[in-house]
Design brief:
The structure is a homodimer. By secondary structure, chain A is α/β, with parallel strands linked by helices. Chain A has helices spanning 15-27, 39-47, 73-79, 84-93, 106-117, 152-168, 191-200, 213-218, 228-253, 257-265, 267-276, 279-282, 303-318, 321-336; strands at 2-6, 32-37, 58-62, 99-102, 127-128, 130-132, 139-142, 176-180, 206-211, 223-225, 285-288, 294-296. Chain A has a domain at 131-280 and 320-339: Isopropylmalate Dehydrogenase (3-Layer(aba) Sandwich), CATH 3.40.718.10. The interface between A and B is large, with 61 and 61 residues.
Chain lengths: 339, 339
């Protein structure tokens, strides 16, 4: 198995992507990697590590450009044809890599993947699927922002793809799927979610109805579907509030020596939550529905996060997630096609 | 000034509404209250308090019904004509009360207020405005769920009304207004927010552009506008996550005696945050845009929260917030009317 890694993508590239892939190469023996990006810089970064025994599994593919956070996703594909993320996707398209991993610009990965790889049969729009941690278990939120103007049929596709992903990669039987809305009863929501509700009822997933913000964490489901606009707002609100609360608590704890002592004694509690909520552990968000395998790691990915994104990419290949999705879509296509 | 209090609304009614109004009557001398609800029960609750010196300022208005959380807002107005919230709004309509305060069913208050009081001239839909606490200052989120299918003109109205409310009630000059979206650049968002962006640019408010979930807490504005579907999802996601994180931290702190000791030493930090994020302090959410004054207190309001909701209702009257809104809408009406 060969994985194309966007070595220039992310806030700490090429250092963290390179460090992460070396961790992964040591832990998992079943893959080789092609590092895509400015070859000189990437080779220099690799040279900082001890790669004895790994050399045969690392190759390089030069790409002269890097997508900037200011670029629009679509423009980046058109104007920066030699960007590291575009070239990584090109390798997947050419059959030279079975999966792409990138911690770079989300929009650029989505645009490159959608345009170059196109979508799976029966899927019209891909959805970005992000695992959100809760005190009991993580739930998969999709679409987290790949497709801003979604139709109910797209949302039905997310439900099917998300269920298969949770079953195959997170290992949970019969995942419960909810529709993000503003009340739990069937009639609650806007016109769009009411249509989605009806279409979701005809998909082969374990659809349990509407879910709302209060229930996301108190009674977490396995999959929560919504259009990419709402999903992106929910994702960023959660990330923003969690970061703010964490900073707020730290600030208050520093206000007196007694509080600081207390915080030191209680540090195990904070470290435990930090570990449980770390995006490092979940290892990247799959772009579900493209005719290929693209895993988006968080922009601020640590080496551990990159390693786990590569783990997910490997599992995606070995579990044949895309083949399962195509089967499920075919069996439900007539039921949802009209929407 | 006379305030109609829905004495049967909220999770802890009539106990907390009655206890709260008695706190308010003691603190503020400029109002009288009419307690609306099952008169026997409400009188019995009042009798549990020392009301010496307050008797002349308390009157009763019997209402035989209570809106159930399962009722739909609109149905409750049609079918439970004698509900405490409907009767409280009737008093405002008849000019027998200058403001309504309720901790009951949000949808019932919105429906009763919109149908019976109608909207202010130039405003087509009311918006529920909720203060969200952050480490530096609270921002006003609206619409938090009064109007699920909004138009860009409705959102422009929220921006104008929210700015006036923040200026007059929260006392901040030149409030900064942002549009809830999925990226900060002007071109980011869906078709609806792009239209809103354009209309907001023509309103007389200090519109600073799009805001997103990451920025809500790290760089808080004064007013954040969106349609009621998105606003309700954002509000409930924030409430749900904050509650979950708080419970999560408590659970981890209880896992060992050392952690518990640390938590005890650091308790000042947690209490400080609890106080700063308490919905009690902000005192209820105004339903902006109705031709009257309706303050929604949180369903789980404490007596302190009810007292503060009454404080806000009083300030709303004395600051002539609705007259200011009408002036501002008139001056900007032509600019936003086309949308």
């Amino acid at each position: 198995m060969r994985i194309a890694l966007d070595a220039m993508g992310g806030d700490f590239a090429p250092a963290n992507p390179v460090a992460g892939v070396i961790l992964a190469l040591r832990e998992y023996k079943d893959f080789t990697v092609v590092l895509v990006g400015d070859e000189e810089k990437v080779r220099a970064e690799v040279a900082r590590h001890d790669t004895r025994g790994l050399e045969d599994r690392i190759s390089y593919h030069h790409a002269s450009q890097v997508v900037d956070m200011k670029d629009s996703g679509l423009d980046s594909v058109r104007r920066k044809k030699d960007s590291s993320v575009s070239r990584a996707v090109d390798l997947a398209k050419a059959g030279e890599a079975e999966a792409v991993v990138s911690a770079g610009h989300t929009g650029a990965l989505v645009a490159a993947a959608t345009i170059k790889l196109r979508t799976l049969p029966g899927i019209h729009r891909p959805g970005l699927a992000v695992v959100i941690p809760t005190p009991t278990h993580g739930f998969l939120l999709l679409d987290a922002g790949a497709n801003i103007e979604a139709s109910p049929a797209h949302v039905a596709g997310y439900a099917i793809m998300g269920s298969i992903y949770v079953r195959e990669i997170l290992g949970r039987a019969n995942p419960r799927v909810g529709l993000m809305s503003i009340g739990t009863e069937a009639g609650k929501g806007n016109e769009f979610t009411k249509e989605c509700y009806e279409v979701l009822g005809r998909t082969p997933v374990n659809f349990v109805g509407n879910t709302e913000g209060h229930a996301l964490f108190s009674n977490p489901l396995d999959v929560v579907v919504c259009d990419g606009f709402v999903g992106n707002i929910v994702l960023k609100t959660i990330e923003g509030l969690a970061k703010s609360m964490s900073g707020w608590i730290k600030g208050e704890l520093k206000k007196s020596p007694i509080r600081l002592l207390g915080a030191w004694l209680a540090q195990g509690a904070f470290l435990s939550i930090k570990k449980q909520t770390s995006t490092d552990e979940y290892g990247g968000s799959p772009l579900l529905g493209v005719n290929g395998i693209c895993i988006k790691a968080h922009g601020n990915s640590s080496p551990l996060a990159i390693k786990n994104a590569i783990r997910v990419a490997r599992e995606f290949v070995t579990q044949k997630v895309n083949a399962r999705i195509v089967e499920a879509i075919e069996s439900s296509h007539e039921k949802i096609a009209a929407h």
